[in-house]
Amino acid sequence: MGLLTNLHRKVIVLGLVPKFLKQLPQVAKLLMLISLIMIAIIPMDGQYRRTYISENALMPSQAYSYFRESEWNIVRGYRSQIEEFVKNNATAKERNLEVESWLQDFGIKTSIYHNEEHQDTLYGILHTPRGDGTEAIVLSIPWYNGDDEFNVGGAALGIGLLRYFSRWPVWSKNLIIVFSENPRDSLRAWVEAYHTSLDLTGGSIEAAINIDYASDSDFLDYVEIYYDGLNGELPNLDLLNVAIKITQHEGMKVSLNGQPKDTIDDDGYFPRLKTMLLGIRDSTFAGVKRVHGNEAFSGWRIQAVTLKACGTEGNIDITSFGRVSEGIFRAVNNLLEKFHQSFFFYLILAPRNFVSISSYLPSAVIISVVYATFSLDALVNTPFGPPMFFNKESLLSLMILSITLASSYFLSQLFIYAPNPGLLIGLNILLTIVPYFIRKPVSFFKEPLTYRIRVFGYLYMSLVLTSLLVINFPLAFMMGILSFPMTLVQTQQSRYIANMSIAIKNMLYLTLSNPFFAILIVSNVIDSDLKYLDVFYDLILAWNDLSCWTWFLICIGWFPAWLLIAMSTIKSSQVTSVEDEKKQQ
Amino acid sequence: MLCNTMVSIVHTLLFLIGLAIATEEPLNNAEGTNVSGQKFRIMETGIQYPYEEHLNIRPLPHNHLLTSFEFEMNSEPFFPGDSSLDFDTYDHYTVFPKAIEPLLRRTDVKQLHLRFTRGYWDSEEWGRLPHDGFKSGGSGVELWALIEGSSKEDAFKKWKTLANSLSGSFCASINFIDVSKTNYPVLSFNPQDREEQGIPLFNPTNNLYLMHASLANEPICTENLTPLLKLLPSKGKSGISSLLDGHKLFDSTWHNMAIDVKTKCVDNNHYLNNGECFFEMEANVDVVSHIPSVLARNKNPIPKPLGGEDLYCDLSKPYDGYQCFPSPETTEIQFSLSDLFGKNISGSNDLSFTHSRICVSITDNWLATIKMDEGLFGTDDNCFDLTENRNYDIYMESGSTNEVAQIDDVPIYVSRSLTGYGQDHGGLRTVFSNPTSKPVRLSYYESLPWFMRIYLSTLEMEATSEAHKNLTLNDIVESRYYMPSIDRKRSTQLEFIMTIPANCTISLAYEFDKALLHFTEYPPDANHGFEIESLIITILEPVPYQLRTATLLVYLSTPDFSMPYNVIIISSTIMGLIFGTLYNLITKRMVTMEEAENILATRSIKYKLMMLRQRILSKLGL
């Protein structure tokens, strides 16, 4: 303790604390830099880890897969009939009834879930003799995949697989096959109904494999695996590892986060960085951008992945793709406990490389500290004497914050009922330029109040990020970075000569950090799925169809903070400050 | 072609020989059915005991086969009034298992029911459960007993003794039945019948207590079958029990083992003084097998892809060397019991009044024959008595397996599922579907562990069909019994008597909270979830029938079990920090910075040296 006391004494003697407090904005900027560097060093050798199977029971690829030889004939047989559906323009009802009869032929209990809003879903349960009927594994096959292509190969493969599974006595969990109309709302509606109102159920769903094989070719090139859940949820890393391991074991290349085929084999710092950043992007916009099917299971403790067959040329045949599902089913079937051994929060750098939450969380924590620091700066570095937290300004700012929050909430709800991105953008342009056009000081905004508003604006942002960063790191990280320009905004004080450059700078920073502008720009730049104003419609759809919170986090988490900061740039009326008093003296 | 030839040969055989040796008359109907009080009887063939065994075989749709083994045996009569210490009493067990009787007498059990069940009974296809469901349990182990005792505590003590002893005899975890798993059914398990049966009380001041417990999803395996076989006088060595083999039995689609013991007295009114009583025990084993799967597994244990020539393609759809739309499962089948059970029946039972009897319930398009040595013989009623001491087998075949003997319709379908998500609450939803045109009156018996805290206030009924939209819960439920749970002491017990209107589907749903367990209460596989026992539905009208829903798996919030280690480390660190600071505060003097600097200045070696120098200099007078 002696050492610490000496240090403490030195700090006091040298007066470091006030000096440090004066430099808070610089400290915060430095922290932001550190945070980015911490993310950037993750893909460096020695920073990440190789994936491994944590749950010993899984034993992926340990059993020989027999889905081959004459099973291929059967898959082709089913496919020829499914192709007939396309030729005859069969309606969803006809399709479901026909496939239902095929499933019943090999002893599947089937039922059709009727939903007028989200279309009907056919599902069947293979009650396994050795199981206790309390757990289930799902094979889901949307009739149309995320790209709205007819899932010909997937449907044939799914039926063929289930028929093949029905001959095996090894199953300890019920097997459920689901044919939903699309991988988005209709699959989600079925999953929701399964947990609320369906009469035919097969126990708790442990894992779900979504099959996307939208070609009638016998061959494929490589496999894309999608794993992002909604609201920052991810499937247990064990399931993803099992899927990747088995796919590679069957001789297929695995592409994650939509990497094109020619870059799959790239290894090195930049390819890893790219995969990681693409993962952060996909996770941020999960549910908003194109949905693959695994997202629909998110939120019910169901671990889900989507296997997508890519390409129609290649030396991999459809039964190999089927053997991947077989292998995953065999592995999950071995589980005695639900998935819990491995990580639920991770970033993937390459199919076999990952980092766990402990590696990337500190950088998000630092980002939230950045905002807290700016808040502290606005509290202590004012020309109005020593900071008193509990005063009239604080109360006023709190009230302003509450009003802002309420109006943001109102806006978010209003937009759900009447989505009009043009109007939204217009409103925000207005809000951004209003401070610029207010030439006269507003009497309500006294100078100390503008500082206090900033305190609450940054503090609120920091709180939002802190509470979000564990459950949804990518979104918190994205929000933290995108709203950084708002920390550069300066207060416009009438004491200084009306400085046009400050006002213009402020307007620029406010534009950059406006949640709606930022999301619009980012979605158009980094995601080819989201064009122009699509992102706003998709945000609303994601909430309506999939219960994805991103829209509300942007509206209620980010927008109020931005509004407060924008408010603080309004020209404020002058009051005598401590400095003025000193000068007068 | 080959099959047709076979059939015609068999038919010829039947016609020529079969009729000639058709079933002998059942040896003695009178003695066989009313064996009470009979100790044994000496016949020309030797000493015979009150023991019977039957095997009923019944094809079910979609190539399934139900095989039911029934064994019945009675104990030696005894006088309840006699003390075992009397000079002229002795214990003698003939066909009645020695493992059971002393246990029953020690624990005053009047009725004992033990069930080992596993698998999925497809009631939509297969109709009613064997014995109308009264001989099968929920998935896992189920035990209930009627025990005579002076008080509830006394009866529970005996119940615990019973459970522990049965646990040892049957190698099952029945000893895990404790106070929190035991229920006292009130409305279910036919209390009226109990009254009418006039269960004898050996001590008029005592009462009867019905206790029930089940261990959901307890694995059932060979180590449970072997003890059951050992209870039989034939010990699984001869008669129909020689068919039973763990490998095949537990490879089936659905299987059930049941033991029922009842106390019967010759004259219920006078047993106290001179009436003699005896125990009647029934043991049942029921198996459903999917015949094509079993035959395929006999051929090749691994269900590998079939060769091109073994594929059955739908000829109405395109098929060639590359594609094959599989045709529905074959309806032609031929097999013998030894294919299904891996063994022949070795001989008959020589202990009893009647021979072992095998009956096959089939329609005309089925053929069932008994195979003795190399000959096949049939009978008119498709029942066969095993009279000789040699190997038997049953051979069956059919060209249209989906036509099976009349299947009784199930009066009601009931299924139950968990609803909701999250670790802190959930819901249970039970669907009753009455497909018949008669209202069904039933009793509902549900026992839930204490860590599911149910809210009866959330109990809601919903009718799916338009015609019954106006039904309310009170229209359906005529009486209810609810025993709330006590943490770690008692489970929730919920019983209803309800009537489901004809052609109506209703659902009953309620919500519950999940409690947190103590750290040590989690089982080793805490992340597996917690098994919830089946819901038991007993139909009172129009036909007596009992069914159970599937068991459920409830997830509770489970701690990360490495956490205590982290907690110990963190809390130790915090304790250390607090202690250090406090110690400093208490032992050190608080001074201002100036004082501190003064003190420091006077303490430095330089200062001391200077002082020393000054002192020396002053001593020297310089």
UniProtKB/TrEMBL annotation, chain A:
The chain crosses the membrane at residues 27-44, 354-374, 394-411, 418-438, 458-486, 507-526, 546-565. Pfam families: Gaa1 (PF04114). It comes from Maudiozyma barnettii. The keyword Transmembrane helix applies. This is Similar to Saccharomyces cerevisiae YLR088W GAA1 Subunit of the GPI (Glycosylphosphatidylinositol):protein transamidase complex. One of its GO terms (cellular component) is GPI-anchor transamidase complex. The keyword DNA-binding does not apply. One of its GO terms (biological process) is attachment of GPI anchor to protein. Keywords: Membrane, Transmembrane, Transmembrane helix.
TrEMBL record, chain B:
It comes from the Eukaryota. GO terms for cellular component: GPI-anchor transamidase complex. InterPro entries: PIG-T. The chain crosses the membrane at residues 565-586. Keywords: Membrane, Signal, Transmembrane, Transmembrane helix. GO terms for biological process: attachment of GPI anchor to protein. Residues 1-22 form the signal peptide. PANTHER family: GPI TRANSAMIDASE COMPONENT PIG-T (PTHR12959:SF11), GPI TRANSAMIDASE COMPONENT PIG-T-RELATED (PTHR12959). This is Similar to Saccharomyces cerevisiae YHR188C GPI16 Transmembrane protein subunit of the glycosylphosphatidylinositol transamidase complex that adds GPIs to newly synthesized proteins. The lineage of its organism: Eukaryota, Fungi, Dikarya, Ascomycota, Saccharomycotina.
